[in-house]
Amino acid sequence: MADMVKQILARPIQLADQVTKAADEASSFKQECLELKSKTEKLAGLLRQAARASSELYERPTRRIIDDTEQVLDKALSLVFKCRGNGFMKRVFTIIPAAAFRKMYSQLENSIGDVSWLLRVSASADDRDDEYLGLPPIAANEPILCLIWEHIAILYTGSLDDRSDAAASLVSLARDNDRYGKLIIEEGGVGPLLKLVKEGKMEGQENAARAIGLLGRDPESVEHLVHAGVCAVFAKILKEGPMKVQAVTAWAVSELAANYPKCQDLFSQHNIIRLLVSHLAFETIQEHSKYAIASNKAMSIHTVVMVSSNNSKVNNVKNVVDDDHQNPVPHPMGKQMPNQMHNVVTNTMAMNGGVKAPQKPSNNHVRSNSQGNAKQFHQVYHQQQHQNGSMYGANMKGRETEDTATKAYMKAMAARALWHLAKGNSTICWSITESRALLCFAVLLEKGTGEVQFNSAMALMEITAVAEQNTDLRRSAFKPNSHACKLVVDQLFKIIEEADSELLIPCIKAIGNLARTFRATETRMISPLVKLLDEREAEVSNEAAIALTKFACTDNYLHLDHSKSIISAGGAKHLIQLVYFGEQIVQHSALVLLCYIALHVPDSEELAQAEVLTVLEWASKQSNMTQDETVDKILPEAKSRLELYQSRGSRGFH
Q1: Using CA atoms, how far apart are residues 189 and 201, in angstroms rounded to an integer?
Q2: φ/ψ of residue 424, rounded to 5
Q3: In whole angstroms, what is the distance from residue 187 CA to residue 403 CA?
Q4: Are the beta carbons of 53 and 119 closer than 8 angstroms?
């Protein structure tokens, strides 16, 4: 850096010396040349001062200011050379307007002001004495650029408090205008911001993390941030930083992932998914005893320990180890072998006085004492967790003392980050569902408030959307006997049934995404979705129709059972109203669902009484409805099926 700046300064210093020498040799306009020489010498002195302080200079404004200064000195040298002519004829034919010197004086003064500002802005906080730097003459055309330079220079050389204030100012600039955000990136602001995130005081870390989140507003900017090392810095903060900083960092992760989905896997490679889940689980699952999963079969002490830690349903030790079959929520110790985990438990109990290390018990003995052992282990486990930090990766030591609002905001931002990281990414969805996250989302949907609930619902919507397209993920994470899945579905059902929440639409979408996971006997979801078809808000009715279509479409193995349930719940009359009188977007969704129902249950008396065939015949004549590929494919088939099974009399023809 210092060598490069010296190279940049070398030519302007040479030009200044040449101007000074040529001014001494002037034979005309001697007074003007002496004035020009005086200003040039002052500028040369500042340039040499800059060369001596080259290691401290902020590169971006240095390049811009020195380039402009070099152009000014080139013009000054040309002007002085014109005054050096010796011959009479040369002096006669060389015309130098008086205004040329006035203009050159002004340009040299501007260059002096620019270089002086550069030296002041690059100086350390102690040398600057908190003086107001003002704006250099070069800022006349673009004052914001120089303001950004000043704040970035403070990030490089200022005290921690000054750097915090500078980061807060960059936050304001980046929030106000996307172009300012791009300028901050182009002018080298990312590096010192990341350094402040790692090394600053808590307020400075918050401001810097927030600035990083605001800078990543487009794929190009996020890619620049990723190359600068944002993933590693954020992972370190999420593991060890103060909770307030971690919450802002989680928000920043969500912003970057939302604006540039390609960075999702990079965050995952830095263990950020696991760290976010640990924040989501902190004081979420343990305090709700009703979510603990008990087993009615004989268990060993190791199984009791695993059940208590995981909150997952198991039948024996083998099931605990085999996550893919019975245990959808893996243990925090990951793939550690059972005997290793057992040693951890026994050794820890032995080291804590008054807690006797358990002997290898018989199955009958464990049947009668399993709950007591589980309680005993929880005491030891939480004690060890407070001493050594969380097994999930993030250090949770001292987090209990944080205020309630900070804890709630941390959970909300962790859920928001997981929502955007999971979107369209099957690998990350696997990681999330294999952790305790689904259980956490279920608890937060029930017990959380405001933003925590909404972000949890959106995360579930994105995870289920990926599971809908990924058969293996769907069968693993959302299998019917999965306790976490049951809790999630229960909460989604409750919200849909109440139908008066901003969570309604993401929950409707999530249930629709899970349509292929429900058994034929599980029809409780159908009725509340059918009721929502009669909703006054078109968006809600549309999403309800789309969700029901996923139950009734041919791709769903149980489409016949679900179609009958929709008819039994009174869905036909609502769909007819929507096809006739609904908004265009709702008309299409309602027509597709009506076609599937007619296709699968053409002999239904309810459809005949509702004159569904008449509705389909009317719809087939509406050009705006038949342009869709799906409608064009299934509408004629649905009509022919109804015509085959229903007489003209039953349709009301006379």
Answers
A1: 18
A2: 70, 10
A3: 38
A4: yes
